[in-house]
Design brief:
The protein has 205 residues and is α/β, with parallel strands linked by helices. The chain is 44% helix and 20% strand. It has a single domain, classed as Flavodoxin domain (Rossmann fold). α1 packs across α7 and α2 packs across α4. InterPro entries: CE1759_FMN_reduct, Flavoprotein-like_sf, FMN_Rdtase-like_dom, NAD(P)H-dep_FMN_reductase.
C-alpha cells in the first residue's frame, strides 16, 4: 500500500494562528478521508512564518537556504497540497505569495490542491475565488472545487452539531482525497533532465 503525503502550507503570522488551525483541520480531514478509502496518509505542515527571512533572501539572491530547500522539496514531492493564507488587504498575504513565487513555476503541475483562507469577517470570503484560485490555475495545480474560508465567528461554533465549518472541511477534504487516491506523479518538470531520452534509446530507433 502506498502512503500518500499531504503537505499543508500555512501562512499565518501569529502564534497560535487561525490559519494554522484551518490548515491542520483540512489536512487531518483529508488524511481521514484517504484512510476511509483504504490508503495510508502522512501530514507535514510548512509554517511560512518561520521561513520569512529565508524567502526574502532567496528572492534577492536566487539561492534558497537549507531549510527553505527542505520546505520546497516537501511541496514538490507531496501527493496533495493544502494551501491556507490569512487575508490582508482583500487578498492573500505577501508572505504566502512570496513562497509560491520562489517555487519553480512547474512545481505544482497536476498536483491535487485544496485552498483555504482566514479573516475576521465573512465579507472577505471571495478572496478564494478572485485571488487564490486564479493564481493556482496559473501554476496548473489540480484545485478541488470546494475551497474553505473561516471567519472569526466560524470558530465559535466549529464543534457544534451541524456547524458550517466542519461540513465545508469534510466536503473539501473528501474531494481532495478522491483526487489523491488516483494521483500518479509524473516526471519532475523542474528537472531539465527528467524527460531526457538516453542516447542509446535514440540509436535503437
Amino acid at each position: 500500500m502506498t502512503t500518500r503525503r499531504i503537505v499543508a502550507v500555512a501562512a499565518g503570522l501569529s502564534q497560535p494562528s487561525s490559519t494554522r488551525m484551518l490548515a491542520d483541520r483540512l489536512s487531518a480531514a483529508t488524511a481521514d478521508a484517504l484512510r476511509g478509502q483504504g490508503h495510508e496518509a502522512t501530514v507535514e505542515v510548512v509554517e511560512l512564518r518561520d521561513l520569512a527571512h529565508d524567502i526574502t533572501d532567496m528572492m534577492l539572491t536566487g539561492f534558497p537556504s537549507v531549510r527553505l530547500s527542505t520546505a520546497i522539496d516537501a511541496v514538490k514531492g507531496a501527493d496533495a497540497l493544502v494551501a491556507v493564507t490569512p487575508v490582508f488587504t482583500a487578498s492573500y498575504s505577501g508572505l504566502f505569495k512570496s513562497f509560491f513565487d520562489v517555487l519553480d513555476s512547474k512545481s505544482l503541475v497536476g498536483k491535487p490542491t485544496l485552498l483555504g483562507a482566514t479573516a475576521g469577517t465573512p465579507r472577505h470570503s471571495l478572496v478564494l475565488e478572485h485571488a487564490l484560485r486564479p493564481m493556482f490555475a496559473y501554476l496548473r495545480a489540480d484545485v478541488v472545487p470546494t475551497a474553505v474560508f473561516a471567519a472569526t465567528d466560524d470558530w465559535g461554533d466549529s464543534d457544534a452539531e451541524g456547524a458550517e465549518l466542519p461540513t465545508r472541511v469534510r466536503r473539501a477534504a473528501g474531494e481532495l482525497a478522491t483526487r489523491v487516491a488516483s494521483y500518479s506523479p509524473g516526471p519532475d518538470l523542474t528537472d531539465p533532465f527528467a524527460t531526457l531520452v538516453p542516447f542509446e534509446q535514440h540509436l535503437s530507433r
